[in-house]
Amino acid sequence: MRRTVPALLRKELLVELRTLESVPGMSLFSLSTFVVFHFALNRSSTEGDLAAGILWVTLLFAAIIGVNRLFVVDEDQGGFDGFLLAPVDRSALFVAKTLTLLAYLVVLELVAVPAFALLLLGPSLGHALPGLLGVLALGDLGVAVIGTLVAALAVRTRARDLLGPLLALPLFVPIVIGGARATSPLLSSGHSGGPAARWLLTLGLYDLLFGLIAFALFDFLLED
Amino acid sequence: MLEVEGLTRHYGEREALSGVSVSLREGRTLVVFGPNGAGKTTLLRILAGLLRPHGGSVRVLGASLPQEAFAVRGRIGLLGHDPLLYRDLTARENLHFHARLHGTPETRVQEVLEAVAMSRRCNEPLRTLSRGMVQRVAAARAVLHEPRLLLLDEPHANLDPAAIELLAPLIGAESGLTRVICSHDPAGGLAQADVVLGLREGRMVLLGAADGLDVVAISELYR
Amino acid sequence: MYGKGLRALSIATVATMTVGLVLVFFYAPLEAEQGFLQKIFYVHVPLAIVALCGFVIGGLLAIQHLRTRDPRWDMRSYVAIHMSLIFAVGTLITGSIWAKGSWGHWWVWNEPTLVSFLIVFLLYATYQPLRFAIEDPERQARYASVFAITAGAFVPMNFIAVRLSTAYVHPRVLGSTSNLPAPMALTFLVCLAGVALLYATLCKYELTVKHTRAQVRALRRRLEGTRPELAQSRPRSAAPALHPAATMSARTAGRPG
């Protein structure tokens, strides 16, 4: 496992760097979505609940784009068999793919969060930034875990681009609840202090529960 | 080396393989003939540990599949229709990736690249190479980890005679490895075989030592 | 032989539900605030509880399927989830009627149960499309089981999250059995038992039908062996179908339904 995950990660990042299929798309999508929100809501500046909502919805939908593409290269180019024939722990693929998706989400947020602060956010981010990063980190982990599981489920079915989002969105709801409720006070003017503990706990519990379940179930999806 | 007894695998209500039994000693070659849909690829994938048998018993390299499949992974090489390589990576990158997965030393990568005469173009993405070249790299991948059993699904499909000759020491009779080959070529396949297995619609219709058979008997399968 | 206990179970269900209905209309007192409409509580809440338990049971049955690879567990899991989905729709409809009657809107976001049910419904509504999108029956069953286990774990997690997020404007409905006066509590329990029995009966019925169909198919296959012109190919389906070999081995082993 210790040897396999880095080898897999290296391959993932090499392929992504060569093809640039996921990350640029996700980032551009988030920027376009902010523009759409501006016109759809007819607001130039938001705060609190509205701001948190826009941010999380945009991040989730951009994440789904990444989820849809996560296993496509492996499925189309026979990468599964090559991996399955190797004397390695199959869960390493789950770990590697989750870390990959997590990396994509981090890069996405490096683009999307400043863009959001620039385009649509009223209050300044300054003091709220550490808290926001903490919430995003926990939320990203949940999205990565569920996204990887759903991507593996959907990629070998007939309607893979449709089933991915349909399966993922309801499963993401607790992340939205925890993430948006935690973020909302951080994006309000005149707020001080960190995110509320109960939402961090919700996110943490979710990450732990589904991390374990996905890790245990992933092998069953890899067999032919 | 290989002992299959009453192997069965179904796909829903259809029997993809039904009651297949065959055994193979070390260093020998088994050639499997049969029309499309006969179950040849299914048999190969079960031997590779990629599919579970639904009935009967399978022992490969002394281990019982699927329970002890982990013990044989890494000692089997598979070369099929799919090269199992990433088209956007170079030959060298692909082989390095497989080497790391199998725990093979990196020096071996250069060795096999030279053996398949691909060291000159090993730093170009595979999608820029011809099918024959990709097949050669795929063969390199299949033998990279020095397997004891080779499973070949129509290995000469995209290769010209020069390439076939080039690969002979790696995957041919000269390699001395135990091999199971699926073939559509009665004459060529028979020439390589020690044991012949004929399948039709998942059932065994022919099994015997190659010396006792002639090309006509095999062509009958395809009628 | 499946279907052995079906008649007894059906009779018990009808009996319990009849008693339940009688209690609802003639025994349970009218609730002070909401009046007659409140009686829908005796249908809505049992439907909700049974549906939720059904989803979780579907997940547990799926675990058994992955452990044993026996397709009969997948069949049971499918039926449990399928039936729970129907009961979930019933929950949403009765909940909506109750909301309209009590608070004037067909939908309220303040009632955590209703909201959680909507999310759970949206999730499980993808179960059959997922199955239908996979042609290989063995893989279909396996993937469905992975989904069932994930979704089964999701159900409680979702309830916790939604509960945390809603403001409690209205009194909690679920878990308030302890606050109910004795006649209401009795009526509620009888109705709960009735709905649970209904669920069990319907599931057993569906399982029996499926098993019988599988046996007919097995006989048909044997007949086709002698008369190939009768051969029929099965269309793609989201529902699992038992392979004849599985049912045959069950019969020869003499297992009772």
Number of domains of chain A: 1
- Main beta-sheet strand count, sense and barrel state of chain B: 6 strands, mixed
Major β-sheet profile of chain A: none
Low-confidence stretches of chain B: none
- Rg of chain B, nearest Å: 17 Å
User: Overall pLDDT of chain A, averaged?
Assistant: 92
Q: Which spans of chain A have pLDDT < 50 for at least 5 consecutive residues?
A: none
SS elements, strand count of chain B: 10
- Strand residue content of chain A: under 5%
Helix proportion of residues of chain A, in percent? over 70%
Structure description:
The complex is a heterotrimer of chains A (224), B (223) and C (257). With 224 residues, chain A is mostly helical. Chain A has one domain (4-222). Chain A has helices at 4-19, 23-41, 48-69, 72-76, 79-84, 91-119, 129-155, 160-186, 197-222. In chain A, α6 (91-119) packs across α7. Chain A is globular and about 60 Å long. Chain B is an alpha/beta fold and 223 residues long. Chain B has helices spanning 40-47, 69-72, 91-102, 107-115, 131-143, 161-171, 186-192, 215-221, and strands at residues 2-11, 14-24, 29-33, 55-60, 63-65, 76-79, 149-153, 178-182, 195-200, 203-209. In chain B, the strands form 2 sheets. Chain B has a 6-stranded mixed β-sheet, with helices on both faces. Chain B has a 4-stranded antiparallel β-sheet with strand order 2-1-4-5. In chain B, α4 crosses α5 (131-143). The longest helix of chain B has 13 residues, at 131-143. Chain C has 257 residues and is mainly α. Chain C is built from 8 helices and no strands. In chain C, α2 (41-68) runs antiparallel to α3. Chains in contact: A-B, A-C, B-C. The A-C interface holds A 149, 153, 156-159, 163, 166-167, 169-171, 173-174, 177-178, 181, 198-199, 202, 205-206, 209-210, 213-214, 217, 220-221, 223-224 and C 66, 119-120, 122-123, 126, 129-130, 133-135, 139, 142-143, 145-147, 149-150, 153-154, 157-158, 160-162, 164-165.
